[in-house]
Backbone:
């Protein structure tokens, strides 16, 4: 069914929601995982253009991805990770098209109204520009 699942990682508590679902699905199907985080701070958005060095945000994001990889590998998963820079929506679509993934998994936050327009743009752009199934899991609200 699924052989390679791309999991969009936010470096936030929302990651627990999506990884909980993907963990079970990958176990059932034997799929490998590709964890992807797109750093989108100022330095990350201009990283290539201005030939900048990694920002503190990017260093922290890379460490977070590496830890997730180690933890998932320790649980028996085949995992790769990719830290990208730039606009999350555009970079995710680009990578989805380049990689041989057959499922994309992302967390959503359930924004409504204006907040959805502002915060829901990544999921909206991705869902309209890919040709593989998209699993959306609502993240639990912060207490």
Residues:
């Amino acid at each position: 069914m699924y052989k390679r699942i791309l999991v969009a990682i936010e470096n936030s508590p929302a990651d627990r929601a999506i990884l909980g679902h993907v963990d079970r699905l990958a176990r059932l199907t034997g799929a490998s995982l590709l964890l992807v985080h797109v750093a989108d701070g100022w330095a990350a958005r201009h990283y290539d253009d201005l030939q900048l060095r990694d920002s503190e945000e990017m260093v922290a994001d890379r460490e977070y991805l590496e830890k997730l990889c180690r933890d998932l590998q320790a649980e028996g998963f085949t995992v790769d990770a990719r830290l990208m820079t730039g606009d999350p929506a555009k970079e995710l679509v680009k990578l989805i098209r380049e990689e041989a993934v057959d499922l994309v998994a992302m967390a959503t936050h359930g924004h409504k109204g204006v907040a959805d327009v502002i915060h829901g743009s990544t999921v909206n752009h991705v869902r309209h520009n890919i040709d593989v199934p998209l699993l959306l899991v609502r993240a639990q609200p912060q207490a």
